[in-house]
Amino acid sequence: MRDHILDTLKNLRKGELKEFKSKLTDIELEEGYNCIHQCDLEKADPVEITDLLIHHYKEHYGVKVTTTVLDAINQRDS
């Protein structure tokens, strides 16, 4: 699952990745989860973002969060 998140993020263009990071701090999360701080995402590349997603949300919920953000930025097919 980690590799799937990473591959998805690597396929985003620079502007799309910037939008993904912005939206990631602005989505509604399930109870018990906290947003990743914007300062942690600012200079993060796809590998670092993937690590943050897995660290904050574990693999299964990390995939769900990634999908939610991709939907929000209209990049679900990436």
UniProtKB/TrEMBL annotation:
It comes from the Eukaryota. Residues 1-78 form the Pyrin domain. InterPro entries: DAPIN (IPR004020), DEATH-like_dom_sf (IPR011029). It holds the Pfam family PYRIN. Transmembrane segments: none annotated. CDD domains: Pyrin_ASC-like. This is PYD and CARD domain containing. It comes from Chelydra serpentina (Snapping turtle).
